[in-house]
Amino acid sequence: MIGRRGVLAGAGAIALAGAAPPRPRVLAFGDSLFAGYGLAQDQGMVPQLQAWLDRDETPATIIPAALSGETTYGGRVRIGFSLRRHRPDAVMVELGGNDMLLGWSAARAEANLDAILTQAGADGRPLLLVGLNPIPGEARWRQAWRAIWPRLAARHDAVLLPSLYAPLAALPKVRHRDYLLADGIHPNAAGVRLMTAALGPKVREMLAG
User: Fold this and answer.
1) Can you tell me the mean pLDDT for 31-57?
2) How confident is the model at residue 8 (pLDDT cuts 50, 70, 90)?
C-alpha cells in the first residue's frame, strides 16, 4: 500500500525507473449516492467518476464499495471487511444522509464516522471525506451536522469535499428537479455529472498528497 505522502508521486517514481506505474486503487465507500441508486449501470457515481479521472489523466481505479440504505453505523460495521477484501491505496467515505433521514443525531454519526476513518486511514492511507451538508433553511437539528465533516477531516488529515450536493444547491431551486430523480433526493445522470465535476478534483488532490 502506498503511503499518504502522495500516491501519484509514488507512481511517477516507478515510471521514471522504467516500469509501468500501478494504478492506485481508490475505495468508494458510501451509500446509495455512491451506489448509483435508480440509474443505469454506466451512469452512477463510480463509473462517471472513473470517466472524469480518465479524461483528467489521473491514473486511478475506483473500487465500488457502496450500499444503498447504508448508515454510518452500518459503515462502521462494514469498513473492516471492505478494506480486507479490496486492499485499497486510498479511501473515499460518503455517509450520513440516511442517518439524517432517520432523524439520528449528528453526535452519533460523528462517532461512527470517526471509527470508519480511523480504520480507513490506517498505515497512512490517504482519505477523502465527502460531506452532505444540510442546505440553509432546513430543520435546526439538521444544522448540527454542518460542523462534523470539517472537524472529522481535520482530525484525520483527510481531504474534504464539504457537500456533495453543493453544485445542485448553487442552482436556482426551480432547476433542481432537472438533476434529481422523482424522489427529490437522489441525483439523476445529469446530477451525477455535476457532482463528479466537483468530486473529481478532490480525488486528484487526495492522490497527489
Assistant:
1) 97
2) low
**Cα 107 to Cα 148: distance, rounded to the nearest angstrom:** 8
DSSP 8-state symbol, 137: T
Instruction: Enumerate residues 6+ apart whose C-beta is below 8 A from 206.
Output: 7, 26, 90, 92, 126, 127, 128, 158, 159
Question: Is beta strand 127-130 parallel, antiparallel or unpaired with respect to 61-66?
Answer: unpaired
Provide the mean pLDDT of the chain. Answer: 91
- What domains, with CATH codes, occur in the chain? 21-208 (3.40.50.1110)
Q: Residue 144 — pLDDT band, cuts 50, 70, 90? A: confident
Q: What is the pLDDT of residue 17?
A: 54
**Is the distance from CB of 49 to CB of 196 less than 8 angstroms?**
yes
Phi, psi dihedrals of residue 185, rounded to the nearest 5°: -120, -50
Write the DSSP assignment of 16-47 as a string of letters: HTTSPPPPPEEEEEESHHHHTTTS-TTTSHHH
As a whole number, mean pLDDT of residues 103-122 equals 96
Secondary structure in 3-state letters for 146-195 = HHHHHHHHHHCCCEEECECCHHHHCCCHHHHHHHECCCCCCECHHHHHHH
Contact 48, 193 (CB under 8 A): yes
pTM > 0.85: yes
How many whole angstroms separate alpha carbon 21 and alpha carbon 26? 15
The pLDDT assigned to 4 comes to 56
Tell me the three cell numbers of residue 19.
Answer: 516500469
